[in-house]
Amino acid sequence: MVLKQKKLGASGYFVNFVARPDFWLATCRQVMRQTTRNNSIKITPMKKLLTALSVALLIPFFSMSQANEKLQQALSQDEIDAIAAQGENEIAFWNYYANRAATVQTMTGDLSSMPEISELNSLRKNQNIPEVNAGNFNANAFNPMAYNLDIDNQVYYYRVGNTDQVVQIMSEQRIRHLFNNGY
After folding, report:
1. Does the pTM of the predicted model rise above 0.90?
2. Contact present, 80 and 71 (Cβ < 8 Å)
3. Coil, helix or strand at residue 169
4. Which residues make Cβ contacts (< 8 Å) with residue 153, sequence separation at least 6?
């Protein structure tokens, strides 16, 4: 059985592969010769693009399943392992909580009845957590998980010195709602 490859298109090649094993072998040999002749596989722009896209898409999935720096600061490795045992989504939630539960708001009026941010120092989970006060407070570095607070269903407010700035630490329930709804 002899088939002409002329004007057969892709289906003709399929017929040749199935009907003539020698054609398949010859094609494989030709590919191998080209690969060994060049001593490398050609990296085309399309291969580079696909590789870059694959890496870019996979990085968030790997990072979601790992505890971030704030989580490691506030929890022991056993606690992190227990959270990880509940699933990757749970680690992702607690990373989200550590980064988004505390917000700084500007409030007007008399804030003197509100507790000072330095009062959190007595609630630190361990001595590795730096002390916080109005002079060194940094909203981006602040870790709400580093303190023994009942976060299940309660919101906390702390004033930052004698300024109009107030730190709000949201409840786990509120943050879980935001996390589940993609905010």
Report:
1. no
2. yes
3. strand
4. 171, 172, 173
pLDDT, mean of each 10-residue run, the chain (183 residues): 45 48 61 57 71 62 64 92 92 94 94 94 90 93 93 94 94 95 86
What one-letter code names the amino acid at 111?
A: L
Backbone φ and ψ for 103, nearest 5 degrees, come out as -125, 150
Nearest to 71 by CA among 149, 128, 143, 137: 143
Q: What is the predicted pLDDT for the residue at 3?
A: 43
d(CA 179, CA 91): 12
The CA dihedral of 148, 151, 152, 153, to the nearest 10 degrees, is 140
Non-local CB neighbours of 77 within 8 Å, separated by 6+ positions:
none
User: Which residues on neighbouring strands pair with residue 102, listed in sequence order?
Assistant: 169
Q: Count how many residues are written for the chain.
A: 183
Burial readout 136-174 (b: 16 or more C-beta within 10 A, e: otherwise):
ebeeeebbbbbbebebeeeebebbbeeeebbbebbbbee
- Residue among 119, 160, 141 at smallest CA distance from 70: 141
Cβ–Cβ under 8 Å, residues 84 and 127: no
- Both tokens of 51, joined, read 């590789």
| Token couple for 177 | 């709602």
The SS3 assignment for 102 reads strand
